[in-house]
Design goal:
Elements (H helix, E strand, L loop, with lengths): L6 E8 L10 E7 L9 H5 L8 H9 L3 E3 L2 E2 L11 E7 L17
Antiparallel strand pairs: 1-2, 2-5, 3-4, 3-5
C-alpha cells in the first residue's frame, strides 16, 4: 500500500500569467517519493491535498500548469522517483453574490 508522504520543497504565491489572466497563483513543487514511481502523473496528483480530484488534475495538466524542468506534462506521463513536479494552481475567482429576484409563479 502506498503512503501519502510528501517532501514539500517550495510553497509560494507568485504574480505570474496563467491562461492570459493576471490572477495570482500558488506554485507548489514536490519531489516524487520512491513508492509512487511508475504511477501516471494525473493519478499521482490526486494524492496532493491541493488538487485531490482527477478532473482537477486533468484540467491543470491540459492547461500546462504541471511541469518538470519547465516542460509541460501529459496525463499519461509515468512519474519517477526523484522527479521534481511543479504545479501552478490559479487562485479561484470570486463569484458575484447571489441576488434574489421576484419570479411570478402560477400555482
Amino acid at each position: 500500500s502506498k503512503k501519502n508522504e510528501f517532501a514539500i520543497l517550495t510553497w509560494r504565491t507568485s504574480e505570474t500569467e496563467l491562461e492570459k489572466t493576471d490572477s495570482p497563483q500558488q506554485l507548489i513543487e514536490r519531489k516524487v517519493q520512491e513508492h509512487f514511481a511508475g504511477e501516471r502523473v494525473d493519478r499521482y496528483l490526486t494524492t496532493w491535498p491541493e488538487i485531490s480530484s482527477r478532473s482537477r488534475a486533468e484540467y491543470l495538466l491540459k492547461s500546462g500548469c504541471v511541469t518538470i524542468a519547465k516542460k509541460s506534462l501529459k496525463a499519461s506521463y509515468k512519474v519517477r522517483a526523484g522527479d521534481l513536479i511543479s504545479v501552478r494552481i490559479p487562485e479561484q475567482k470570486e463569484l458575484d453574490p447571489l441576488k434574489p429576484y421576484a419570479i411570478k409563479l402560477d400555482i
